Amino acid sequence: MVQPNNDFLSAPELCYDGFIAALRENFGCFSPARGTNIFAGRVRPRRVFGLAAVDLACDTVRVDRTKLDIRRDDMEYYFVVAQLTGGSTIIQNDRVVNAAAGELVLLDSTRPVTLVGVQQAQWLGLQLPRQNLVSHLGFEPHGGTCGRGQGQAARILRQLALDPVGNAEPAVASADDYMRLVVYDLLGALFAPPAPLCSRHTDKLFARICGIIKDRYADPDISPREVATEMGISLRYLQKLFTARGSTYTHYISSLRLDHAAHLIECRASMKTGQPLSDIAYASGFRDYTYFARGFRQRFGTAPGSIGATRPR
Q: For the chain, what percent of residues have pLDDT higher than 90?
């Protein structure tokens, strides 16, 4: 059961205009219904692993993000809403979600959204950079999607977002970057559609990964983790993209290096340069000549030194 945040409940109440202004600073324009009663709300902005987050509550019956609101701020992001207490109905992209305490809903800032029945409810909103999330997941999520609220991924994500350590300065500069990838992975587990890893979106993502490796395969220090970081995805997701295509990162980069080495050896033979084979191995990205020679024989069926003017097939 999700417990209300008592620290947040002690935050000062805001009037209608104050509530809108506080929410707009990080999350854009929203239009709460005024109703007949005196409006009161609370907004507490904070950071969760470098991501903008907000605790919020208000006593109105309805909150909208309209087409006019979208045009006013022109903000492009996703945000995941965790219903901490109470219940509400959330509508986006013709999807209707009845969110109870503990539920997580993914919303799209570029599409209108309506939240109904929000009195006595407390939420946590977490803003997600659109480009980074799409690049990491390999697809563009649809707003109005409800996550599996009681699953392990949901529980871990809520705990990470609610834990006070999320507001602390990281011990090392890269800690926030790493934890953001953890958050993206959890969101992928919650909101990924049952689509195969081989799709139009993932094919484009995989092509970009291959492009990075092709540009840098001669660097012996290039690692799959470094490629994943450059792409803004997790190492595990990068490995899954290769596995779905019947390959591995190691096999792919080794093939590039061996093909390049074979080309250099052919040039060596035809031009009779006498270039040491160890130099060719190192120039192709191999640190260890014995490992290179073994891989070369396995791929081409002959030792590197036995190649003549014609490249083996």
A: 31
- Quick: pLDDT tens for 168-185: 555 555 678 888 888 888
- Structure confidence by residue, pLDDT tens digits, 32-66: 987 656 788 889 888 888 889 988 888 888 899 99
As a whole number, mean pLDDT of residues 81-88 equals: 86
Q: DSSP assignment, residue 14?
A: B
Spatial distance between the Cα atoms of 24 and 267, rounded to a whole number of angstroms? 63
Architecture of domain 6-191: Sandwich (2.60)
The first and second tokens of residue 69, run together, are 């609101």
- Coil, strand or helix: which one is 109? coil
125, amino acid identity: G
DSSP annotation of 38 reads: P
Average pLDDT over residues 120-142: 84
Q: Are 39 and 58 in contact (CB under 8 A)?
A: yes
152 vs 1, more confident: 152
Classify residue 159 by burial, with Cβ atoms within 10 Å: 0-12, 13-18, 19+.
exposed
Residue 176 Cα distances to 51, 136, 187, 200, angstroms? 9, 16, 16, 30
Decide: 85 and 2 in contact? Cβ < 8 Å: yes
Per-domain boundaries in the chain: 6-191, 200-247, 251-306
Helix runs in 55-199, H state only? 67-73, 130-137, 152-162, 175-191
Residue closest to 182 by CA, chosen among 199, 163, 161, 162: 161
Q: Which CATH class is domain 251-306?
A: mainly alpha
**CA-CA distances (angstroms) from residue 305 to 82, 237, 308?**
63, 39, 8
